[in-house]
Write a structure and sequence with these properties.
The chain has one domain (about 25-160): Flavodoxin domain (Rossmann fold, 3-Layer(aba) Sandwich), CATH 3.40.50. Helices cover about 35% and strands about 15% of the residues. The protein has helices at about 25-30, 35-45, 65-75, 110-125, 145-160, and strands at about 50-55, 80, 90-95, 100-105, 130-135. The longest helix has 20 residues, at about 145-160. It is globular. The relative contact order is 0.13.
Amino acid sequence: MNNLYHLQDSTATKHTVSFPPLLTEEELRRKTSFAPIVQKQMTLIEEAEAFVVIHPDWWGGPPAILKGWLDRVFRPETAYSMPEDGHGRNPLGLLSGRKAFTFILRDGPENPSLRNFWNEGIWGFCGAIGHCHEFNHIYETEATMRRKILEQAAQAAVEFLLSTSKASS
């Protein structure tokens, strides 16, 4: 389990306590990173049997730290590959057969584009079967109701991850 705000970079100063989200020019050029914190995360992705992501909707997308983590960790030959197929380059998802459950918390109404970002743009592109569970107007609910909603969501995640279903929603 990762909390991106509490990962310690062994090569950084003792004051660095979160995942550094900036994709460097060198990483972009090489299509990978040799930073130990990124290498560790890439290994965890390769070894994972399933994924659960929980995040708030920040201006229609995931928080910058999570987007930076995706940019640095979901790289070619870790989450996908781009083999030549004779007709161009079509992605080959390296996370095939794995499931991914994404919880999205938001202040306002439903945002289908964020669900599409995860199910198609991330999980689908990388070969995983994605499902999003959205909590709309979550901050307007009382604490007791939020706990009940989160318990129901946790149960939904368990049911999805243990099912044999192939559908995304």
